Amino acid sequence: MPEETLLKVSHIDVFHGSFQALWDVSLEIKPAEIVAIIGANGSGKSTLLDAISGLVHPAKGSIEFEGKNISALEPFRIVDLGISQVPEGRMVFPDLTVLENLVIGSYNRKARSKREQNLQRAYQLFPVLKERKNQLAKTLSGGEQQMLALGRGLMSDPKLILIDEMSLGLAPILVNEIYRTLREIRDQGITILFVEQNVRRSLTEADRAYIMEVGRVVLSGDVAKLREEEKVKKAYFGT
Amino acid sequence: MTLLNELATPIVMGLMLGGLYAVIALGLSLVFGVIKEINIAHGDLVILGSYFGYVAMTVFGIDPILSLIIGMPILFGIGFVIQKYLFNRAFKISMDATLIIAFGLSLILQNTYQLIWTPMARGLTTSYALESFSAGPVHVPLVYLLDFLAAIAVMLFLHLFLKRTYLGRAIRAAAQNRKTAHLMGINTDRVYAYTFAISMALAAVAGVFLGLTFSFTPISGMSFLIIALGVVVLGGMGSIVGTFVGGITFGLAQTLGGYFFGVAAQMLVAYVMVLVVLAVIPRGIFGR
Q1: Do the Cβ atoms of A100 and B169 come within 8 Å?
Q2: Are residues A24 and A99 in the same domain?
Q3: Is B183 an 8 Å CB contact of chain A?
Q4: What is the 3-state secondary structure (H, E, C) of chain A?
Q5: Would you call B173 an interface residue with chain A, using a CB distance cutoff of 8 Å?
Q6: B140 with B12: CB under 8 angstroms?
Q7: Domain-located, residue A87
Q8: Nearest CA in chain B to A92
Q9: pTM
Q10: Chain A environment of B170 (Cβ under 8 Å)
Q11: Same structural domain, A77 and A165
């Protein structure tokens, strides 16, 4: 019996004005997977996440979540359905406190009833957030802001969490720590799709990966298989 | 020493008048800070509040301040509809579209006022509107004190609302980062409608106190819009405290300017002061 698909992106084209950012992109995610999207700047990774979150809509193709077509939905409805995005650059609300940032993450009605529970979960995963809960978010360090953005992303009680370029500008040790926490999050039953420029890290942390170039998916599969692929070795590892 | 005594009245008047200006500007500041709309119909919408108070007083014999109990919800509702069905759509077309639509709204309002109430100057002439009070060397019209108290009350309420309620936090979040607000599951169209509605409720209050303090005509909205813009730009966009400080600064510049240079010069002094402050602090006193 086939495992049910959580998210299915089928042959989508996405335009920014007259510029085509995504060409015939397809991807599938099953529950409790950790999937990576790898690619350089301009490869369309962020646009793909934005399309899933409903911030942009595909001109062609469809996006299905738990069997339901979400391609034309407003972003807030998609959050309601259980998809949360931690955007590139963390994007914490600078003039709200840590606690206010977390609370605003549970804005949608379904999540409000589980607010206390999810707040404690965020504190347990990232203790520093509890320490600094009354500080303005803009006073936090880069790493702390990333943890805040992640914690906030969990507050909407998501089934799938999209993470855009989490390791940008952070020390490797810190990034290791955060990825370890990601695995904890997956073990709690949340599916993870993350975007990374760092190929090595992606192939270490994910179960499966999609490699994108200039708006198209050029390669995909289990990370073990990908590591052996000649193209990947040549392009990214230089051998 | 007598200079201080003589200055006491203009200073106190400037502070209190500044409070009124702050209330007038608050709605504008809110809408600009959150939705990033410059609502050039704001002045005319404040005057709508004034006319509403006028109708309450002359037709129904209700005290204008008391009439706010009905006036605020009504203008709140009107504001919600305007943002939801007019400005939200214009916004999706372009920034210019919202300016043009606001301008059109302003024209419609001015002409409607003229049709209904004629160009004659009106005022909310209640029994207390003509009284004044003295405290030591200070001699000030009573309404000025009411203006100031109203300003404090309004700002306190707004601050608590923005800080303590889910909607208030959503409004602050949407103001800081629109895209991320979407990702929080915030329906920004709806939040913007509520924001504009709140600015209209503020305009209702501003209109009544304006009408108690000054006389107004169908085209008074424009003059007060300009003052409101000066106040907002002075104090920094989207900050309650900033708007208050901006209002007081403006009010003081006006009354002290009038004291030193004559009544005819008072507005000029105030506007020159705005320019001078902006030249030194381009973002406004509390601007971000």
Answers
A1: yes
A2: no
A3: yes
A4: CCCCCCEEEEEEEEEECCEEEEEEEEEEECCCCEEEEECCCCCCHHHHHHHHHCCCCCCEEEEEECCEECCCCCHHHHHHHCEEEECCCCCCCCCCEHHHHHHHHCCCHHHHCCHHHHHHHHHHHCHHHHHCCCCEHHHCCHHHHHHHHHHHHHCCCCCEEEEECCCCCCCHHHHHHHHHHHHHHHHCCCEEEEEECCHHHHHHHCCEEEEEECCEEEEEEEHHHHHHCHHHHHHHHCC
A5: yes
A6: yes
A7: no
A8: B180
A9: 0.88
A10: 104, 107
A11: yes
ipTM reported for the complex, 2 dp: 0.88
- Select the residue of B172, B183, B288 nearest A79 (Cβ to Cβ): B183
**Contact call for B172 and A107, based on CB within 8 A:** no
Cβ separation of A108 and B185 shorter than 8 Å? yes
| B132 and chain A in contact, CB less than 8 A | no
* Residues A152 and A172 occupy one common structural domain: no
Asked which of A104, A133, A158 is the last residue of a domain, the reply is A158
Last residue of a domain, one of A158, A185, A202: A158
Instruction: Tell me whether strands A7-16 and A60-65 are parallel, antiparallel or unpaired.
Output: antiparallel
Query: What integer is the mean pLDDT of A192-205?
Result: 88
For A87, which of B166, B183, B187 is closest by C-beta distance? B183
Q: CA end-to-end span of chain B, whole Å? A: 40
Indicate the number of domains in chain A. Answer: 2
- For chain B positions 41-60, those within 8 Å of chain A (CB to CB) are none
What's the domain range around A131?
Answer: 92-158
CB contact under 8 A, B183 and A84: yes
Give the residue ranges of chain B where pLDDT is below 50. Answer: none
For A18-66, write each residue's pLDDT tens digit: 999 999 999 999 999 999 999 888 888 999 999 999 999 999 999 999 9
Answer yes or no: do A93 and B179 touch at CB < 8 A: no
> Which of B172, B177, B183 is opposite residue A53, by nearest beta carbon?
B183
Structure-block tokens of residue A126: 């990232």
Same-domain check for residues A169 and A149:
no
The residue ranking higher by pLDDT, A129 or B127, is A129
Residues of A in contact with B184 (CB under 8 A): 79, 104-105, 107-108, 152, 156
Residue A190 structure tokens = 């949340």
Q: Domains of chain B by range and CATH?
A: 2-280 (1.10.3470)
